[in-house]
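Dear support,

Our group has been running a series of protein-ligand predictions, and this particular one with 5-O-phosphono-beta-D-ribofuranosylamine is the one our PI (initials K.S.) wants archived with full inputs and outputs. We had some confusion internally about which version of the output was final, so please treat the block below as the authoritative record. The input we submitted was:
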Amino acid sequence: MPASPTFSIAVLISGNGSNLQAIIDAIKNNELDATIKLVISNRQNAKGLDRAKEAGIPTLLVDHTLYLNREEFDQAMLDALTRYQPDLVVLAGFMRILSAKFVSALCGKLINIHPSLLPLHKGTHTHKRALEANDSIHGCSIHYVTKELDGGPVIAQSQVPIYPNDTEELLAVRVQKEEHRLYPLCIGLIAKKKLELVDGAPVLDKQPLTNGGIKFRQSNYDTYYLK
Ligand code: GRF
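Confirmed final output from the archive:
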């Protein structure tokens, strides 16, 4: 029987690209059976572009400042994605709001990582806002992308504690460590077809995922790595 083609992804970034790096590393370490076909950045100086080049991944700069409006910018990215035909498009620190057309063209094939326990703290400055709200736990969420900003159905969340003397910076480091574990893992679940979007709702092993998706803590990560 011919081998099935490797699950392919495109990653969209705007900056540092530490989540991109985590995905690259997971593939290299055989923890994620996938291939990155393309990395798109809207910023020329994004460190993530260097990370992609270092890993031998094709890169594309789509500079949003060169387009008249959001729709034209999004169309340029859609054109590139149509050429590469990835199975999944992964937003990893991509700092542009996407048009309804872009989101609906990739319905069920577009996921994002957000640094909070959604629906809490949508938008930016999430660590600062978690501290100001006196939250005792914080974390990150992976969700399918819909037209509503940071509002699509949540696939998985990973929690971290907030300690009494925490700062924004300390919290950011703690959350990012979880992000780097959680994102490759969720991509792997989608690649293995264990996880999919059915009628607008995430389904894991044929069971609907409710209440904020899969809840990860360090102790149960291994379960989901099992092939
Ligand atoms: C991450 O914190 C992610 O949750 C948010 O943007 C940040 C990107 O970081 N969407 P990096 O570029 O992957 O280092």
